[in-house]
Description:
By secondary structure, this protein is of the alpha+beta class. Helices cover 28% and strands 24% of the residues.
Amino acid sequence: MNKVTHAKFGMGASPLRKEDNAFITGKGHYTDDKTAIDVLYGYVLRSPAAHAKFKIQDTSEALALPGVHAVLTADDISHLKPLTNIVPIKQPDGSMNATRDIPILCTDTLRHVGDAICFIVADSVAIAKDAAELIELDFDILPASIDTEETLNPDAVLVYEDGDKNLAFTHFMGDREATEGAFAKADHVTELKLINNRLISNYMETRAVHAKWDGDANRFDVTVGSQGVFGQRRVLASVMGLKGEQIHVMTPDVGGGFGTKVFVYREYPLCMVAAKLLGRPVKWTSDRNEHFVSDAHGRDNVVTAKMAMDKNGKFLAIDIDLIAAMGAYLHAYGPFIPYLGITMTTGLYDIPVMAASTRGSYTHTVPTDAYRGAGRPEAAYVIERLVDQCARDMNLSPDEIRRRNLIKPEQLPYTTVAGRMYDTGEYEEHMKQCMQNADWDGFRTRNELAKEQGKIRGIGMSTYIEACAFAGSEPAFLELKKDGSFDLKIGTQSNGQGHATAYAQLAADKLGINYDKIDVRQGDTDELENGGGTGGSRSIPLGGVSVVQASEQLAEKIKNIAAEELEASAADIELENGEARIIGTDRVISFADIAKAAETENDLKGEGEFKQAEATYPNGTHICEVEIGPDTGISEIVKYTVVDDFGVTVNPTLLAGQVHGGIVQSIGQCMNENVVYDDEGQLLTASFMDYGVPRADNVPSFDFSTRNVPSTTNALGIKGAGEAGTIGATPAVMNAIVDALYRAYHINHIDMPVTPAKLWSTINNAD
Length: 767
């Protein structure tokens, strides 16, 4: 019998977050906290125009300013490679899309406001900014292409002069002939055009980097806020023309990532070049305005979606035409994001035929890339808004049309027409449970009360699914130290999710020790050979399983050593409270003494690597209820209910936090957030004065519960949860708003964000 008794840290327990004490007492350590006595500060001179030819006439006056150490132009860094698109897309003709790389510094053409002109290094940021004012530049301002859709028109201004149009790539998925046949036979076709507005991630901690050149070791030390140090090292090595071992990357605490901190940005190699050139550490920290004009943006799609149905509202085929703005350059994963979304186009529905065409468009704007959910929120928004419109067209309720089309449990595992293999789930059941929890049937009464108060009310749902924790692995390494505590090393990177707590509780459960005795170590390329980083809700489904495997392996080694020392059988040893005990006796040995008794270092180490062959598929139902004041356009979310299927819950408190945070980001997109450029490409929403993020009074309390069906592709049955709130919430909120507008005014469409001004105008312009 192998016994471990420490269930309070096991699967499903909710120990408090171990990292929070440092954060709430100001003891966190972020990239901008790193400094040195001789540190210098970098500043990027950025383009004030969206499209311009430019020439640097003179930098001598800037260089002569006291405290200025370097002014780097494109000529000074010609040995650096550009930042390239990592995942090209296969086009209908079989070719891979051409790439438009991001130059570290521009040579003669600027393609968006915020494009990089030169890099100034000085004793302070203030001095560097003063120096930037002294650089003589010639500008030839040119017209710009801004609109996601209009930039593809034949007469649009070209983002690249050597291109015949602003088409970045094309992609097709599905069967066009079969789709056209299904539409020809359909009793009804519903069509809807949607704009998925451009967003800026606005994490609490803006980006920063600290670079130092170590001549003796012939390598760089780079500290940077990221979502994975190994990905940073790989790209930096490529840009710098170095071997990976010549770059030591460290990531300390990170104040939010949301996909946007996965990437390497220009400032990182610039600081490295300057540090080596000047022989002193160089640091750069973004201000909030720079974040708006330099960090990858999210979303920005225009979609026309059509659904073919029979007379009973059964879905026969779906047709999608998607235009995705890429911005001025192809960012790291830019074209892959809409492609990934298309693979989830059919949602939870049994749709037998699909045709999905995607075009990427170049615009004179900041490039787009992954933002929380990375294509899956966009896909859920399309299918769930379309399904609600189908219900109205067929005179069916939102739940009834879903009930007729949801994939049934007996159809699982189910392979969609886009090639996704859903393994488990009870989709109609979580919809029913969510409706019950939300008191769906009582809405009519609440709506009548709202009318009496001069308000209009709406209720909307979304039944969503996402793909995450994609095929791959994330090894974990555990070691018992001489004092009886443990080091756990893993290549993911916490951005606030609570990895130190979740990983530690999984290990503690197997080792019979308090989770405070486990030091979770991430963010250092010197401590591991490799790691996959954090993104796509992969950390706990992949890394967590590896942690369990490493813990089980080390627990067995500890028992074997204890058995030798206590002269017993390993099968009779239990681990509890940092000791190994012969079951049923008072004969014990501490973990510290076990560490001293080990014959080799390997006896104190455990390693686990769970390799997953298929993605996992979290799913669920969101129901949102809103109330709108017609005279003001002010909307309020009065009730929000979620029932999710995450397979298995590791830590309910951490899980709820992830879901709540994701929903809030979606509420932001629906009601507040919107990137706005004018016709000349000037960013009109370049600060919090103009870009609305959700605040406390925009956010309701949440009724959150789970109805889990374990995954069969994950060893612990976990499906992942980091992005799910964002994926399910956007269509639920918008369906509720449209429901209110339709009930009162027969308005069946409005695009995000539904600000009070837009709602008021829409209501007052209703026919």
